[in-house]
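Replying to the earlier thread about multi-chain prediction with a worked example.

Input:
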Amino acid sequence: MNEDLEFIGKPFPKIDARMRVTGTAVYGNDIILPNMLYGAILRTAYPSALIESIDISAASKFPGVVSVITADDVDVNNISYKRDHPILKKGEVNCIRDEIAAVAAESIEIARHALTLIKVRYKVRQGIYDPYEALKDNAPLINKYAENKYNNKNLAEVFHYEHGDLTAQKNISKVIISRRFNLPRVTHTCLGTSNITAHFNKTDKKLLLYSSTQVPFLYQRDIAHALKMNPSDIRIIQPVIGGGFGSKLDMYPFEPICALLSIKTGRPVQILYSREEEFIASPTRQPMIIDITTGADKSGNFTFREINIMKDNGAYTSWGATTPFVMMQAFSSLYKVGACSFDSKAVYTNNVFAGSFRGYGNPQATFALERMIDLMADKLGIDKADIRVKNANQKGEITGQGLHYDTCGHRECLETVISKSEYKKIQSLNKKGRYRHGIGFASMLHVGGGAKIYRSDGCGTTIKIDPYGFCIIITGSSEIGQGSETVLAMIAAEELGIELSRIKVINSDTDVKPWDVGVHASRTSFVAGNSLLGAIAILKEKLNKKAAFILNTDFSDLQYKKGKINSIKEGKSIDLDKVVREMHFSPPGELAIASYFYEPDSHFQDKEFKGNVSGSYAFAAQAIKVEVDTYTGNIKVIDVYVAQDVGKVLNPLLLAGQIEGGILQGVGYAISEELLFEKGRLLNPDFHNYKILTASDIPDIHFFPVETNDKRGPYGAKGVGEAPLIPTAAAIANAVCDALNLEFVELPLTPERVMIALRENISI
Amino acid sequence: MMKGNRNRKEKQLVRISFSLNGQKVEAEIKSSTILLDLIRDVFSLKGTKGACREGECGSCTVLLNDVPVNSCLFPAINANGKNITTIEGLTKSDGSLDEVQEAIVQNGASQCGFCTSGVALAIKGLKYHYKKLNNSKKINAVLTPNRKDIKKWLEGNLCRCTGYVKIIDAAEKALINE
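Result:
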């Protein structure tokens, strides 16, 4: 069916690109409503303290201040999936982000000035910033809303997974290696800072929110719970988003706070973060310490993995605490492995809490896993590329965790990057002198067909064709810059023979669009694409009926091309818009409209976390070449060879954009990015001291898509968005270790860390 | 006393006039007003973005007499008598795209798009830069920037989505067009 595709597989530019290059796209950061107030939040001065008193009298009296609120002024529920996070803090503060009071004022300057007039008396506490310390018996309780369902008061979340016979697998292992890896806290640094504009109408008691959320329908439910409102009284409009990457999966206190300020004042209120606030108070990737032991038999077959992870949960729980869902997939099911035992703890501390970030725990897991493979290969004397190919996943495999690999390009991905990097030909890399060269490999496995972790992983679509032949797709899915609107429009163009310029995608209003779980888990092309195809099938039945009648032929004879419906047999055709008008206006009259809800053919995992959680699985491999300057410790990432099982290329231009962007985020994770904390305080809340990479830092990226044509995906496609950054840091670390013949167990590999390792010739 | 104060305040406002996207405009500003705020808040041109307000990210890039500047650090008072071009001014008056914008679209160089206005003007600035170089009489050969020059020029424009590859492709295409 793929031979004569007219749109799918072609490099169409994004249909929404023009509004973005002309500055006409309205981001949440650009919204101005009539009579709008500006909100600002007073955050704690100490990461851990008792609040003895809050005096808002001077702030309230300041000219231009309309409302000042503290916890005493609001009747709300806690937020977060564990409901352990008060929106405004009362009596105590537990991390440096903590919101104590909020101001709505006539200008942002007045609002910010008013914050300085609020007097808070603290009784400072020492705080706990190390999760191991927090687990000790004498540690104070950090979060008083903690469920306390485990055997320790500061334990927020625990996961355990196992498959196979660990003892038996250990017994057949020729090599067993243990390591502890330390993964840093990094952050999304979306260029558009966090924002929300809330407008509560006092008369009809309805709340309108302009929000950057990636999960509008879950958000609607969550903010309704927080505010003790009916979800249907809250309408979410998603303005253009200045970067997502997972950062907008959780709802954060500033959002209900903004709504509360609007409810208090009856006026629209906007809260817009400064860059410093964005660094301090927006989410991070989950930092963690991974203890891992792995084994392989004498031929290099992987035998077992035993993992113990300590996650710093921070003071409150976010979706980030559930990253083990994804991590255990990597540990249990990336490469074949006989037995796996996985334990993770998330422990409350007085640090900031993490959220979700592209890859969702997988970059951390893959780093540990792929480092261990190199160590085992070295010890066994087996080539590091060969050992990976030998253990690669295969089509038809059902993993220990119950993931069904109906299609699997893992081996092909590995073989592609091994051959394209000419690894076998370049055994003699320069290992002496100032500049040393190395090459490293890493693979990855990620969900490629959604992830059934909520009650539904579905997406709804309504499609209609107007009497002029224009097509409107109303999709539950959300656009965050990745190009979902374009891919959906291309699918409709392909199936209905309508030009892209005649297709509109409506996707930003919960009052209009059908339900969808959200833009996450690399799911949108797969789930929203399938949903759209389902809606198109229903719509075409209606159109076919009318067209077949007019053209005097049967359904199977009809072909949709270039705005016409053709009868091949009769050699006749009719304009699509004419068919629609005939439908609308001749009795009995019918709309050219159809709706469909697609639910992926995947399963919830059971209590042991086993089950086929995704409709499809994506695989990738990267081979990365680096040059390390032993005088400065600087690492130059030279070439990235990436092969990724994308199922089917829907749009090569947009696909390459996802690959390149993901890889560079992975390079940053590997060599330059780290939020530095000292006793709960962030030391580098700016781009000068938190280094995201620039145009000068990019490696040459050589991308080879692998098409496995998964019959479940739209045209065979799988999810692609998160995959490219997942193996990058692992492959870079492997390459640097190769170049220097040293071992690194921490990220990022900053010049400082490299120099210390070189000087002391030790593992670091 | 009050009157005197008010007078002094009024004196603090400075009248400037400059060309904004080809139109002569005037504004009464405080000497501390930043160009970015003048563009966004007074002239309501929201295409220019502020993403760090400390000169690190380039999202606020505008052209000042054809040279890219970070409008978040630039005192508006220094715009007096100058030509300022924002993204809205790069778009042609009939709504069609400048070749730089077109190259960004065609090469997939804009994802979330928050950096795009700044990137587009930085690339346009690079075009002007080379035009000026080539027009100066000292040089005979026609200079064009290579990929490395482009990367160096764009170092001040952070992008978190694209990994820069498509941005550099777009710049190359736009510069070759000349």
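The longest strand of chain A covers residues 302-314.

Feel free to reuse this layout for your own posts.
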